Amino acid sequence: xxxxxxxxxxxxxxxxxxxxxxxxxxxxxxxxxxxxxxxxxxxxxxxxxxxxxxxxxxxxxxxxxxxxxxxxxxxxxxxxxxxxxx
Length: 86
Description:
Elements: H1 10-31, H2 37-44, H3 48-55, H4 65-75
Helix pairs in contact: 1-3, 2-3
């Protein structure tokens, strides 16, 4: 069975996720309540540098599914939205 499924390489996928974390964090700050990288890090019990690295275009940073899940709950965004390239 042949399917046309396109997979991103790991670096590209983490770049998309990081860009979306930054986008949705800023959107949340504008529409609901300001949330900084530091605030988000505290809420998911991780370091600010992890959030900064994820949002940076110059750093390759992975993320656990559990941390991404917590971010999606805090920012009120379905987890699959973090995988969409805009």
